[in-house]
Amino acid sequence: MEPTDKRKHYLNADYGIRSWLLTLDHKRIALLYLISITLMFLLGSLFAVLIRLELLTPAGDFVQADTYNKLFTMHGIVMIFFFLVPSIPAVFGNFLLPLMIGARDLAFPRLNLMSWYVYMVGAAFTMWAVLTGGVDTGWTFYTPYSTTASHSNVMATAIGIFITGFSSILTGLNFIVTIHTMRAPGLTWFRLPLFVWAHYATSLIMILGTPVIAITIFLVGVERAFHLGIFDPALGGDPILFQHLFWFYSHPAVYIMILPSMGVVSEIITCFARRRIFGYGFIAASSLAIAIFGFLVWGHHMFTSTQSVYAALIFSVLSFAVAIPSAVKVFNWTATLYGGSISFQAPMLFALGFIGLFTIGGLTGLFLAALGLDVHVHDTYFVVAHFHYIMVGGALMGYLGAVHFWWPKITGRMYSEWAARVSAVLVFVGFNLTFFPQFVLGYLGMPRRYHAYPDEFQVLNVMSTTGASILGVGYMVPLCYLIWSLWRGAVAAPNPWRATGLEWQTPSPPPTENFARTPVVTEEAYAYPLKEAELV
Fold it and tell me: Does 90 fall in a domain?
């Protein structure tokens, strides 16, 4: 079926806005999420631009100190809770999981649509807070900033995050039930694509961890509204309790953001290396290990708090241990590349960029897991750089890799390969120029969240702002050529990358019902090299 056929594929199954807003098709819901989170990404990026302009000069004359507090707070809140957490699961998990397991939809289609509406309601509360003055507590909502000190829209923002958490819970529940109950005949657990394994582990974290942050933010609102002694020591509360509750969720949340990208990279690496993935079982198990260990390391965020030295030592050891399953993935991807027939197309460039940036982020995470070093660089730009190497260099590179890899399947159109390669290079170069100087700034002692700094730090900050400009161009270029491709792009074949997987056995774009008949799986997930009959 050609994508110009207006009768069968999901994009043209029904016309009108109402058919989209009431759709139960997982593919359309994925596109609703794609539009929503793209808008949130643009908003969060705008805050980042203003932050870097403020830090261009030591005196910090671009905005006032209070405004700067709101900028970095809203940048963190929008990017983390409304872009990075839902990005790959809500868009590509929604679109691809049923296709990858041979199902016609997710287990609970109405719940899936509801999760998008819940996300939009939460975003609306947060946007109201932005438009009516912003919030200045920092994205972590640390007490007493969030309970007594701040006079900004803490309650509206907290309600928005609280509501949005239910979107993640509903999505995770839907994915787990779908994977357990709707796999095609012959699709055993150890024939599942690694993308599915990554989303299974991510869904476990969503279900187990998200209620904790929802309750924590709810308690902040209760204390702020009714002056109950939960976190305020003057009322008999404990401010350190907030940190324990917050980081018990927020460190596993790092893996909600990064595990789906790891699943994407596994799919891309094996496709463009034309080789079976090395150590399939170890990569699948490492996803579950990351999900489990992620709940045991929250205390390394609190080495400078009042927790005991003995507890800190345990958290330090566990933080080193959680690096092992991540290293398993990196080493196995590298082994897959070794001896492969590698094709350096755009998705592969983003995947290789992910490996390089995530490795730097992971190694610098070991610095922060070491007690002595963490005390020195705690709350400095070293932490900012490390966090962005994981989140932006990792999660966002994986997201861009997914966009470019599955764009032909989603839209039925090809984009400009040359422009996509330019974008991948710009993002990689711009990112390193933006954030690598911040490692040096942090080691030299520049604290984060300050709107002014000593003159000696200006050169590195100018480098960082210059890199952010290049990075911004790298992000805007795909927005242009992907939109262009919707009207002018070449018609995509069902399997333009010659990849394995059930999703590539459907037309591009897929029909509304996904499969005319339920497929039967008879071989492993990555049966490369393909036979001539499959190269279509």
Answer: yes
Closest by CA position to 512, among listed 11, 3, 2, 88:
11
Residues 6+ apart with CB under 8 A from 355: 265, 330, 333, 334
Residue 1 falls within a domain, yes or no? Answer: no
Q: What is the mean pLDDT of each run of 10 residues along the chain (536 residues)?
A: 55 84 95 96 96 93 92 95 95 97 96 97 93 90 86 87 95 97 95 97 96 92 88 90 94 94 97 94 96 94 90 94 95 93 95 96 94 93 97 93 97 96 97 97 95 95 97 96 95 94 94 92 84 47
| Environment class of 338 (CB within 10 Å of its CB; exposed 0-12, middle 13-18, buried 19+) | exposed
**118 in a domain, yes or no?**
yes
Domain ranges, residue 66: 10-534
**3 within domain boundaries:** no
What CATH number is associated with residue 83?
Answer: 1.20.210.10
Under 8 Å CB-to-CB from 7, ≥6 apart: which residues?
none
What is the total count of domains within the chain? 1
Burial grade of 415 (CB within 10 A; 0-12, 13-18, 19 or more): buried
